[in-house]
C-alpha cells in the first residue's frame, strides 16, 4: 500500500471511530427518548459509514479487489436507521399523549408550543367537531 492510501484509511477509521463514540455516548447519557434517538441514527450511522468505507479502501489497496459487501451494509444501514427512528419516535409520542409514560426533564427544555396561527403539528389531539377530527369517521 502507498502512503496516501494509508493516510486516507487511517483518517476514515479515526473519523468513524469518533462518530461512533460520540453517538454511543449520546445514546447512554441523554435523558429523554427523543434526544437519545439522535445518537444512533445520526452520529453512529455516519461513523459506521466511514468505517465501512475505510474497510473497502483497505481491501482494494491490499488485495486489489473491490468489495461490494461494505456498500450493501452501508446502503441497508442508511435506509433502515431513519425509518426505525421514525417508528420509535411515533410510538413514544403516542405513549406520551395517552399518559402511559412520563419523561424526565430534557436538556433542551419543554417542546415549543405553536403560535396563534397553529402553523405546525402539535402533541395534542385535534379539537372536536372540526374538519381534522371528523375526516376519518
From TrEMBL:
Top-level lineage group: Bacteria
Biased composition (Polar residues): 128-137
Keywords: Membrane, Transmembrane, Transmembrane helix
InterPro entries: PhaG_MnhG_YufB
Keyword Magnesium among record annotations: no
Pfam families in the record: PhaG_MnhG_YufB (PF03334)
Spans traversing the lipid bilayer: 6-28, 40-59, 71-89
The protein, known as: Na+/H+ antiporter subunit G
Organism: Sphingomonas qomolangmaensis
